[in-house]
Amino acid sequence: MRIVSGMRPTGKLHLGHYFGVIRNWVRLQGEHETLFFIADWHALTTAYRKVSELERNIKEVMIDWITLGLDPEKSVLFIQSRVKEHAELHLLLSMITPKSWLEWNPTYKDMKYNLLRIRDLQIQFRGGLRDVVREFIGMIPYKVEDFERFEERLLEDLSETFISALFEGEIERDILKRLNVSKKEFYDTDTYGFLGYPVLQAADILIYKGEGVPVGEDQLPHIELTREIARRFNSLYGELFPEPQALLTETPRLPGTDGRKMSKSFGNAIFFSDTREEVSTKVMKMFTDPQKLRKNDPGRPDICPVFSYHRIFSEKGTVSAIDRDCRAGKLGCVDCKKMLLENLEAFLEPFREKRKEVEARVEDVEEIFEEGSARAREMARSTMEKVRDLMNLR
Ligand code: TRP
Questions:
Q1: Which of 308, 276, 303, 309 lies closest to 290, judged by CA?
Q2: Whose CA is nearest to atom 9 of ligand 1?
Q3: Which member of 40, 88, 95, 286 has the lowest number of beta carbons within 10 Å of its beta carbon?
Q4: Which CATH number fits domain 2-99+193-254+362-390: 3.40.50.720, 3.20.20.80, 3.40.50.620, 1.10.10.10?
């Protein structure tokens, strides 16, 4: 089976990346033909303001991939934007993809939902501004013809200006936090490119005639869409693309240090590049059962993030002993964390060493991805010839 998958370069990799996808990729490499790429164009669908960080982020991902065991002898490792054919196929697939398929995509719907929330916010501000506006109109030395309409227009304009100012950072940033809204989720992603995100992803997969796509569960709608686009292409122009399947594997639950999903933006991630001291600080600050305040209070391991980590990094015997002693109020969180730190370090330390070695010969890493991109280009080129043929293009 030919396997294709990609990852957006958001910077250094953390444990969540490893247990979520990378570990599966590493396993698949021996048994199948595998292509893995850094989806830098996809990163631009949201982070287009931060192009200055792109190169560094790509480099970090390249280093981490090699560190974690992706092997250029077994896999084609490359960078999306170095294979321009993806863009050509994206364009052609965009011609045959109904807009409604994209608008119904859950990721996009989420974003739209956020846009609705901002509309809500605006309506709230409007309410708050009404009295001020009335007073203001009262001060105007001219007679206003249609008072109500005039008031409405002022309110609309004012609240809109207020929202823009809020997002432009002209009003206390705190307010955004308190309202639990992020700038990125709103204005920034209301673009053509973001809507087309899944079409680009379909092109990424289909251009290599990928059959299996190892991804996290959140990507399932995108793979389904890829299948639909493939079917539509095949029925319009002739059989060319296989319908790819998502390959989901059991992934252990590994939350961030605060119990939420591990993510760089939450500040709750443990990175492969972290030093022992950094890991130690993060572990000792980890959230635990909030009802276990003192060493001798009984705890609930099933809701404790530290315990989720023990399940992965500690031996079976240790895990059941912790489970027992925590519930019995015999094990305090500090001791429990110290044990975790040792076991987690036993896992991280070899990678940390390897990472240093890989970093020291970063030119070799560059070359791996340059060669990989050339190989990918060959494959993509040959598919594009067939695509053009079928579509009567040259
Ligand atoms: N959307 C994927 C993610 O965010 C990244 C990605 C881009 C991808 N193109 C792909 C994954 C093609 C699999 C196949 O994780």
A1: 303
A2: 201
A3: 95
A4: 3.40.50.620
The mean pLDDT value of the chain amounts to 91
Question: Which one of 8, 41, 248 would you pick to mutate in the ligand 1 pocket, going by the greatest count of ligand atoms within 8 A of its CB?
Answer: 8
pLDDT of residue 305: 95
CATH architecture of 274-360: Orthogonal Bundle (1.10)
pTM: 0.83
Q: Which protein residue has the closest C-alpha to ligand 1 atom 11?
A: 6
Contact yes or no for 298/328 (Cβ under 8 A): yes
Between these two residues, 270 and 144, which has the higher pLDDT value?
Answer: 270
Determine which helix (DSSP H) or strand (DSSP E) holds 104, and give its type and residue range.
Answer: none
Cβ < 6 A, ligand 1 pocket: 4-8, 39, 42, 201, 204-205, 213, 215, 219
DSSP 344-389: HHHHHHHHHHHHHHHHHTHHHHHHHHHHHHHHHHHHHHHHHHHHHH
